[in-house]
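Task 17 of the worksheet. Students: predict the tertiary structure of the chain below and write it out as structure tokens. Keep your answer in the requested format; marks are given for formatting as well as content.
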Amino acid sequence: MSEEKKETKEAKETKPSGGVSRRTFIGGTVAGLVVGGAVAYGASQLAAPTAPTVTPPTTGEAALGKTVSFTVNGVPTSMYVQSNWTLLYVLRDKLRLTGTKVACDYGECGACTVIINGKSALACMTLAVESDGYDILTVEGLSQGGKLHKIQQAFIDNHGYSCGFCIPGMVMSAKALLDKNPSPSEDDVRMGISGNLCRCTGYVGPIRSIMAAAKM
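Model answer:
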């Protein structure tokens, strides 16, 4: 077969009706798909993200929560709490009362001490679902009208702190003690703060401060 006839035959095989060669047609189609896909992907990336829909829990342990009503620092408060939330978590993470500290989180150090119905209690060991009707006092509720409570002032005047991390719980234990016993002995004070661990002061400063507060 001559070269001229061979070229004519190849042209006929690769050239569909309408005057467009098969090679050109396929190349144009692929390019169109690539460009179209790129445009679609780019549009999806530029679209504003949709916020996830959060639905109330209906199964599992979280669904066992309930709405509780209690008073915190004199303020009536109602809120939904899950069954596994501690009072410590609610005070700090939900009500933003961060003066109540997280330390051991299992009832050993006393840093989370608050006063519940007039008695000192560990917020990390108290479930929020059991707090319905409670009267809760945290360290933020001690000062009134911009004036520090006498225990807080006594800790400042008598250098009753060092790093200060454990002091909110120490102050709350002292408050519960002095409410019950306004004229404690030193042994009474030592017993009153026996559940509050301090790594800095050796307890000398806090004891001196609480004794001073009792005389104020």
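Marker's comment: The chain has a mean pLDDT of 80. Helices lie at 3-14, 22-46, 87-94, 150-157, 167-180, 186-192, 204-215.
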